[in-house]
Amino acid sequence: MTAPSPAPLAAALAEAGIPDLSSLPADALEPMPQKGVAHDHVRLRGRGLVLRIPRWSQIGLDPASALAHQAAAFQRAEPSSHTPRLVATLPPGTTLPSGAELPMGALPMGALLVTEVVGRTPRLPDDMAAIARALAALHRLTPPADPAPLPCPADPAAALLAQVERQAAWFDEADLSAAARALIAQELAAARAEPVAAPMPSVMVGVDVHPGNFLIDAQGKAWFLDLEKLQYGHPAMDLAHASLSTSTRWDPAVNAVLSAAVVDAFHAAWRAAVPPALADATRPALAPLRRLTWLRTLSWMARWSRHGASLSPGMPDALRAHMDAHAAAILRAEDIERVRRDWIWTFSTDCVVNTDAPT
Predict the structure, then answer these.
(1) Series of mean pLDDT values for 10-residue runs along the chain (359 residues)
(2) Which of 22, 198, 220, 272 could form a disulfide with 284 if both were Cys (CB 3.0 to 4.6 A apart)?
């Protein structure tokens, strides 16, 4: 039997116009397959709703601040029509009723109740244009006069370089070859020596926009699902993160490497969906911010290679094995050298899609 729903959950659901969970069947809470490192997701059967339950904050916020950040992100992004809609916020400490399939309890970081998106995993390269249009819909949104609680750095490129500098210490902890360390040092030096002098447009950016964080619906529309890191910044960062191999190989269900021609077509689809002035202002920053975005991901994965087990305990074995293999692969000197050629757009092969996890 499902335990009675406690007052905080009942109040949040009632405020959102959702019936108290205690009136639903014992199997109303359906755990969804875990795909990411920071959240669990639970479907409310028959309601078209999903509970998004944080397990830790990837941006280092306390539970209340992290939840407020995510709630603001979903609310701000909703006008794009490419993200789920926020329905209710369950404060940290809210207790969920146990169910036939899911033993629940207090949620130390709270949860968000959002609308469910029904769709499939993107297929690359075919769905990159749809992802470009989803990103463009975010980038077209006008930042509010007061962006808080979402970050809005005055110089997004300088802020990204500062983040890379902070995270660079994780390279020292990782088990890297001498060749890999030398190549990373060269890239860090180049990033420091070549500041981005192009205009700094500040738009809504998804940040964690690897293709595995999108679903494609029956009409071919791409929906961006993971808004934890959403902020205001330079659109070139999103264009880089969505198409770099460190991102396109992140999700084992996607696992693709894109050619230069595919990346160019992705950029073209984005340019066609944003105002010409934004497209023109973004073009000069594409290559330098591609390097910086790659260094941001690479340094994060260096951290994961040493601390993944403690950062995200309880992950399914298969997902953890994929993450560990992905970290090892992208931190190899051979992969670093291959990705570095990207800055000058010298791809020599067509898009290659692999069905196995990278090794």
Answers:
(1) 43 63 64 82 85 87 93 97 94 66 65 95 97 98 93 93 95 95 96 81 94 97 96 96 95 92 96 96 92 96 86 78 91 94 52 40
(2) 198
Tell me the one-letter amino acid at 128: M
- Indicate the helix (H) or strand (E) that contains 295: helix 286-311
Contact 28, 1 (CB under 8 A): no
Bridge partners of residue 222, in order along the sequence: 216
Measured distance CA(332)–CA(177) in Å, rounded: 7
Q: Which of 176, 199, 190, 170 is nearest to 292 (CA)?
A: 190
Task: List, in order of start, the domains of the chain with CATH numbers.
Answer: 7-115 (3.30.200), 128-353 (3.90.1200.10)
* 8 A C-beta contact, residue 170 and residue 299: yes
Q: What phi, psi does 343 have (nearest 5°)?
A: -60, -30
Alpha-carbon distance of 68 to 72, in angstroms, equals 6
Two tokens at 346?
Answer: 């010298």
Residue 115 CB neighbour total at 10 angstroms: 15
- What is the spatial distance between Cα 57 and Cα 228, in angstroms, rounded to a whole number? 8
- Tell me the CA distances in angstroms from 192 to 6, 19, 67, 291, one per residue in order: 53, 54, 34, 11
Instruction: Let me know: does 221 contact 130? Beta carbons within 8 Å.
Output: yes
- CA-based nearest residue to 196, from 160, 243, 143: 160
Closest CA to 227 of 36, 31, 33: 36
Radius of gyration of the chain (CA): 20
